[in-house]
Design brief:
The chain is 11% helix and 41% strand. By secondary structure, the chain is mainly beta. A hairpin with a 5-residue loop joins strand 11 and strand 12. The chain starts with a helix and ends with a helix.
Amino acid sequence: MLCSKSTLLLPLLVLASISTATALNCTEGHALLEVKYNMTEDTWNSTYPTADTEKDPFLYLPGSSQFTLQNYHSFADLVDFEQCLPITECSEVVVASLPTNSYQILFDGSSLDSGVEIPFNGKNPVTSTEVGTCTEPTCKDSEALVDLQYWNGDLVFIGSTYRIEDQNGNYIINATSTSFDSLTRNRACVPRDNACYTFLIGNLIQWDATLYVDTPSYNLFYDGKLVSKGDSWLFGSTQFGDSCQPRCNQDTESMVELFLYDDGSSSGANYEYGWDLTLVTDDASVPSSSGVVPIGSSRSPLYHEMICTPKASCSSFVISAPENAPVMVMGMSYALAMDNTTYRMKQWHPINKTLNQTTNMGSCTLRGLCDEHSQDLFELELHTPERNTEDIVNGRSSPVIRTGTDASDGISWVFDYSNVVKRDQLPILTESQYIGEAYELGSSYKTVECVPKGECDLAFNITADLHGTSYTVRKNGIKLDDSRELPDEFFTSRMWIMTPFGQNCFPIERRLSGGAIAGIIIACLVLLSVTIGVIMGCLNRHKERQNKHDEEDPLSESLL
């Protein structure tokens, strides 16, 4: 939910003095903060061609003692700003949605750099500048500075948890965002040599940063270099340092990665999720790993686990919700991947009988995973492009490809009976069971499930506008290629690609395209012409031979 700054902040607004001919005279212990603007009216009109209060620039001074907000709804509002601030305190000056060359920040007469830049609206950043007495760690020669800059944004009800761990799992930085429109900087000096660190971040939902103006975002610097940044995520992890090694043996093992986020710890209740990973072969199912995810006031809402399994194996992962939680579990989100291929990434609301959820991963077979007599093995592999070239908002391409039934918004797929009469209220399989709000770019996804035998009665359908995404559908390990486009049953302007879950399901005249049919007709005409030519040639040669024979046979001539 996006909350307007005019709704949340204006009741708290402390009016600051706008620059006039006479500058403010600050009392002892205070110094003058000045923000001077040099943008022309033409530049303003070209930068903000339409009125949109959610995209308006603003100046913001967070903090309990010097809280100030100055909104700029029009060019006439863009006047120089002045305010006296304590010299002995560290204050933050936030300027949002303005080009960084259109203003200058001065404190106590000295010009300051605009500070940290964070993505804001796809065109101009939000900057955070520290003024006053601000300190940062002074690292030794053998240490490197970790600087994690987190912009809380305007999605005040969606807080993220983020942390940095060392090789032993010890927390170096651990924080959960709680405020809005404020930059949180977590800095620490860490050993530089023979070290590896892991950055983790997660929250309850994923958003498309092009649909909202002021979303959370972060920059992570290590030893002065940017190692990670983002403004749209459900979960994320980054390793950095000079001694990072793969967790699993890349030649013989696959890595399963589990993320889980549950902010129910704010209720003060304690409960836990359970998970089990089982290896599935053609002959048996063998338990491999198991664990619990504790949730409570003393626990981080973000859980992360990495598990090594035999390479090229089939694994079945089961997660179990707490049956007797002291409070109702409002919902959680989790993601499950194997070898950088995502199998599930969504919110889960464990209610009623859905207290368990199973995800199949890896190289599975019909015999090992399914009942060969009543089921077939369904596999979908999907690969998203590195860049979304279709969803452009404010001159910026979307960092994700959204899911949903509207083809103009993103990708949707369904596996179900072709005949509407045979369908239940819910489809057999659909993308919403596996992926929540969006597909991430440059990523691979896979779904492996046992489905009822149905041959041509069953079909896989995906929106025809794939936004640059490629996919493959397999039945019992065999790729299915017999597809065609069909209009939506309810919205004729939307097209779907239908792939029947059988062989030769389309009548021949319907399966061939117009070009193919024309080609066949032309080929037949050519073959007919050649055949007629051969026959006529044979008849002519026979006639010539007959004439020659008559000339050479006097008896035949006398008989005539």
